[in-house]
Each structure stands twice: as structure tokens, then as C-alpha cells.
Amino acid sequence: MFDPGSSAAISQTGLVPADSRWLLFKGRAYAAPSAPPGIFTVSLDGQTVPVSVLATYADYSLYGVEIAGFAGREVELRFTVPGGYAGTLQLDSIEFSPVPEPGTLAPVGLGLLAAAWLRGIRPRRPLV
Question: Under a CB-based contact definition with an 8 Å cutoff, are residues 64 and 1 in contact?
């Protein structure tokens, strides 16, 4: 019988494609669409790698892990969830990618452009 207070992990060993720069995956918490990135512990070859939220949608969040240092190597990929969350999270669409999805970079770029534009049109106070 599964103890809800215990952690859970899934793992697989395989070759990380040579052109991979990112590991992308979708995560969903039953209580909320976004699970904090610290809940998922991702490790490659026993080395924990930082997880970032790339985008949040109504039903899930897209997470990314920069994995360029592992490209072209055979490694064990392991996802671990601490006790208390093991029965409340879903993990889906795990894939290696050469770059983050363009859909996640476009809003960031547009936000930066809007901030620069707004900064340029603010009224200037006269020098006294």
C-alpha cells in the first residue's frame, strides 16, 4: 500500500539527443494548475538540476530545465516528488528540445518591448 506521506519517483536511462538544450515537461497539481517548481526534483546522472516555470496555463504549467551539459550523453533522468505531493501531481509531455518553445519566449519579448516603449514616452520633469 502506498503511504501518501512518502516521496515518489520515476526514472529512465537513455541517450540525451546531441542537440538538446532544454528538458521540457508539463506539470499539474490537483489543487491548483501550477505546482511550485521546487516540488519537482529533476536529476540527470544523480545531479539535481534547477527547474523553471516557463508558462502557466489554465490546466497545467510548462516547466523547463537547462540540460546542455548532458547533451550527447547516456544518463539517468529522474523526477522525484516529496511526500505529501506524490498523490496530487501529474507529469506529462516530457521532451528534449534544442530551444524553449517559441510560444513561451514571445510573451517575455513583448513584455520587454512594451516596458522599453513605456519608458521612452513617460513625461520628463523639467530640470530645475
Answer: no
pTM for the structure as a whole: 0.66
Write out pLDDT tens, residues 13-44.
Answer: 999 999 899 999 888 766 554 556 567 789 99
| Cα(111)–Cα(105) distance, integer angstroms | 10
b/e burial code for range 49-65 (CB count within 10 A of at least 16 → b) = bebeebbeeeebbbbbb
What is the rounded distance in angstroms from the CA atom of residue 34 to the CA atom of residue 14? 28
Taking the C-alpha atoms of residue 121 and residue 22, their distance in angstroms, rounded to an integer, is 37
Beta strands in the chain (DSSP E): 8-15, 22-29, 41-44, 47-49, 52-56, 61-66, 74-81, 89-97
Domain count, the chain: 1
For residue 81, being part of any structural domain is answered with yes
Q: What is the CATH number of the domain that holds 62?
A: 2.60.120
